[in-house]
């Protein structure tokens, strides 16, 4: 039974579970969603991000004044809309503490609040999380150290991760305000992304066939070698600059995604030595969700690890790191040459995107040399 003002769905995580793809589909399809009785609040992704920062008390003087009143504006907008359903989607909200999530739920007013969690196999989630942390400039030791810390549940990094992203911790916190029958777990499939979209839309009562998926934006991931190069670069950056304002535009968007991301590198994988741990954690999570009685869209068996999630766990060869770094430097040099020629109005080199030139001029040369060494 809906509340007197309709329902509101809070999609609060988990990070690295297809959230960027889902959010881009819904953002691009917001007019169609409105025709189906669902509105996005806030409508703009930037304001949704501000909302998560405000709720988690993470705004600072470098954010615009408009960000500081976002919770009150959100409450006003939710109360004013006549749509039967409202969706808020921001994966960082899952990390909210009890007082913080209470504030968000209170801002939902008279609406019947539902929680939506997208959940993925840890064998796939953790390596992806590692490279994302590297891109964001967050605390990130090398892949093996990171995985061992999470698996052992010891140390500040592991404590924060399990509090913010552990399924049990998140469900337990949010269920103090939202009944378990209104907590929805959407499992991330191993198949195409449209399967995930279909599962998500089933929770929201939306027809996925009528949504725009042609321009959906995935969250660009780095290969293990490329991420390790970026991690080592980050170690040379002064700690006071390792934040979303200073580092992310350069470290993630420019060096990470533009120059290292253009390389085709094998994704980080869970080492075979942690397979048993992954299987035990999957069994534990499946049993927990069944015991809690949450509503599942998808198949809890998707949380079990598959063979493709593992590799031998061999660290990157130093020569691989050197080659990736050289290719990134060459990409940067070509970018600067193009900019110089454009300023001088001397287009002596036909315009071809940098990443394509690298693939043809440099990629085969360096890649072939690396293969010969092996």
Overview of the molecule:
The chain has 16 helices and eight strands. It is α/β, with parallel strands linked by helices. It has two domains: 7-220 and 271-311, Rossmann fold; 224-266 and 317-373, no CATH class. The relative contact order is 0.13.
Number of strands: 8
CATH first level of the largest domain: which class? Answer: Alpha Beta
Summarize the biggest pleated sheet. Answer: 6 strands, parallel
CATH superfamily of the largest domain: P-loop containing nucleotide triphosphate hydrolases
Rg, Cα atoms, Å: 22 Å
Question: How would the blueprint of this fold be written?
Answer:
Layout: E1 7-11, H1 19-28, H2 30-35, E2 38-40, H3 45-55, H4 65-68, H5 70-80, E3 85-89, H6 98-107, E4 112-119, H7 122-136, H8 143-152, H9 156-165, H10 167-174, E5 183-187, H11 193-204, H12 224-234, H13 247-260, E6 270-271, H14 275-292, E7 295-297, E8 310-311, H15 318-344, H16 354-373
Parallel strand pairs: 1-3, 1-4, 2-3, 4-5, 5-7, 6-8
Helix pairs in contact: 8-9, 12-13, 12-15, 15-16
Task: Label this structure with key terms.
374 residues; alpha/beta; Rossmann fold; 2 domains; six-stranded parallel sheet; globular
In short:
With about 375 residues, the protein is an alpha/beta fold. About 55% of the residues lie in helices and about 10% in strands. It is built from 16 helices and eight strands.
């Amino acid at each position: 039974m809906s509340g007197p003002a309709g329902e509101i769905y809070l999609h609060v995580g988990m990070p690295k579970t297809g959230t960027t793809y889902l959010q881009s589909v819904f953002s691009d399809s917001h007019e169609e969603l409105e025709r189906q009785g669902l509105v996005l609040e806030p409508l703009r992704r930037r304001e949704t991000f501000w909302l998560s920062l405000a709720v988690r008390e993470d705004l600072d003087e470098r954010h615009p004044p408009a960000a500081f009143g976002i919770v009150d504006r959100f409450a006003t907008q939710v109360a004013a809309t006549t749509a039967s359903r409202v969706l808020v989607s921001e994966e960082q909200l899952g990390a909210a503490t009890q007082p913080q999530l209470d504030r968000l739920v209170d801002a939902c007013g008279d609406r019947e609040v539902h929680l939506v969690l997208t959940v993925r196999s840890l064998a796939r989630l953790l390596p992806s999380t590692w490279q994302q942390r590297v891109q964001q400039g967050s605390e990130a030791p090398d892949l093996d150290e990171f995985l061992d810390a999470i698996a052992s549940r010891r140390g500040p990094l592991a404590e924060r991760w399990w509090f913010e992203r552990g399924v049990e911790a998140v469900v337990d916190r949010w269920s103090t305000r939202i009944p378990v029958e209104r907590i929805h777990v959407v499992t991330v499939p191993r198949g195409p992304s449209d399967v995930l979209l279909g599962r998500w839309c089933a929770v929201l009562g939306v027809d996925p066939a009528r949504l725009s998926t042609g321009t959906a934006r995935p969250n660009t991931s780095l290969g293990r070698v490329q991420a390790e190069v970026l991690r080592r670069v980050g170690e040379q950056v002064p700690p006071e600059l390792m934040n979303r304002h200073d580092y992310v535009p350069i470290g993630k968007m420019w060096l990470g995604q533009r120059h290292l991301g253009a390389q085709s590198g094998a994704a980080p994988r869970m080492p075979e030595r942690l397979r048993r741990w992954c299987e035990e954690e999957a069994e534990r999570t499946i049993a927990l969700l069944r015991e809690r009685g949450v509503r599942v869209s998808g198949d809890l068996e998707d949380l079990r690890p598959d063979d493709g999630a593992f590799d031998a766990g061999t660290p990157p060869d130093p020569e691989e790191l050197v080659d990736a770094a050289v290719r990134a430097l060459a990409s940067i040099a070509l970018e600067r040459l193009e900019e110089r020629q454009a300023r001088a109005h001397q287009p002596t080199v036909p315009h071809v995107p940098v990443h394509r030139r690298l693939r043809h001029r440099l990629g085969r040369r360096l890649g072939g040399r690396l293969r010969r060494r092996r």
